[in-house]
Amino acid sequence: MFATLLAAGGVYLYGQYINSQLDAEIATLNSEIGSFSQADMERVTQFNLRLVQAQDRLDNSVSVASVFQALQAATIDTVQIESLEMKREGDDMFVLNAIVQTDTFDSTIFQRGVYLRNGTIQDVLISEVQNVIATESNQVGEVTDTKDVVSFQALLEIPLSDVPAVPETYQNNQPAVDAFGGISPEQSEQPVIGQPVGENLDETEEFDEANDDTI
Amino acid sequence: MITKSLFIQIAMIALSIGIIITFVNPKFSEIGDLQDDIAVYQAEQQKVAGVNAQLSSLINVLDGVAPDDQKRLLRYMPDEVDTISVVRDLKIISDEADVVYISAASTGIGVPASEREEVGRAVFVAPRVYSFSLSVEGTYEQVKNLFVLLEQNNYPIEVKNMSVQKKTGGFLSVDIDLSVYAHESNVANQEIVF
Question: Is the pLDDT of residue A98 over 80?
Fold first, then answer.
């Protein structure tokens, strides 16, 4: 009987101890939850989202100049592109629609073969092949010359992955630009190209500079 | 005497059994439940502490990003696109490329791009798209140069559509549709996977 009473007392006291331990755990959990900073979380989330969005655009940035290079490399000498339409299909490909003139049907067939063998151009569709008389006119509109040409429409697809923009090549700026003989190194260092979108970011600096000038 | 003592002993045993059944045993069960609850609270507390520690380390990483890099990121993916600045930049780039600048204009402001699902990531919130048009004239080399300079810009100017028409004297007339992007801060659907 005494043992039972002692056991009952012990169980009661242990129960009280466990209860207080539970209260302590709840208090600790509440304190831990309370120390969570929603503002910090939002800051991290926003930064992460901005990074992801920037990374997404960076991953899908392409070089239109490379498209021109590819087209140039795949165009034979006797071919002349009269007009070119290019459309970017999402982040997948460029679709090029070119009206092309050649001197003979043989050139047309040869050109088609060159397009098909080109590694960058994926899909090639040649249509509306026709033999026409092309006229050349001067500024006034008078016809100066006529010639027999073969005209056709070329529908070409270039995957974006084949013409990626490589920002590393722009780090030492000169090669990419100098290849076209465009800009001198001094010019390329001018803060002209690539001013931030929304000059509002730098408005304070500009305002300060303006004030300095005034003073 | 012996009978009375035996009766008392039986009564005490019965009382002990009664105490065990009605108090000790239920109390044990209650203590067991409380211990389970404590284990659950401890596990949850560890999870919350883990999230707080992770958040704290991410904040440290964020604070560790160099101001210049943060500025570059803000330029690459700004909160808002100043359309006038972009049109001005297009004019400047055209001048740098030596093409004949005809016109540039903003054609669409802040259109939110559609969301899309990505593998292994929460729903991707695409940036807002600002559309612009640019018309120029120039030689083939000048036009190529224009595109090289557009690519080198420190915020993305993407060519969406382009139309090139041959003009007299070896000149090309080029109409370009361009896209510029701004950060879309739709955090409702955004989730960081730790």
Answer: yes
Which residue type occupies B104? A
CA distances (Å), origin B118, targets A125, B64, B190 = 32, 28, 12
Among residues B32, B63, B160, which one has the least CA distance to residue A47?
Answer: B63
**Whole-model pTM above 0.80?**
no
Please tell me if residue B124 touches chain A, with a CB cutoff of 8 Å.
yes
What angle (nearest 5°) sits at the alpha carbon of residue B140, between those of residues B177 and B89? 45
CATH of the domain at A74: 3.30.1360
Other CB atoms closer than 10 Å to residue B6's CB: what's the count? 10
- Highest average pLDDT, of A107-121, A185-199, B56-70, comes from B56-70
Within its chain, how far is the Cα of A36 from the centroid? 36
B window 45-64, beta carbon within 8 A of A: 45, 48-49, 51-52, 55-56, 58-59, 62
Same domain, B45 and B83: no
Residue A199: what pLDDT? 44
- pLDDT of A188: 37
- Are B156 and A57 inside 8 Å of each other by CB? yes
Q: Is residue B130 part of a domain?
A: yes
Q: Are residues B88 and B164 in the same domain?
A: yes
Average pLDDT of span B173-189: 83
Are B89 and B177 members of one domain? yes
CA distance B166 to B137: 10
Q: Which of helix, strand or coil describes residue A99?
A: strand
CB–CB contact B85 A195 (8 Å) = yes
For A117-154, the pLDDT digits (tens) are: 888 888 888 888 888 777 766 666 676 777 788 888 99
Number of domains in chain B: 2
Which among A15, A44, A193 is the nearest to B93, CB-wise? A193
How many domains in chain A?
1
Task: Looking at the structure, tell me whether residues B90 and B163 fall in a common domain.
Answer: yes
Question: Considering CB atoms only, which of B58, B85, B158 is closest to A44?
Answer: B58
Domain that holds residue B27: 1-64
Helix (H) or strand (E) holding A98: strand A93-102
- Tell me if A180 is assigned to some domain: no
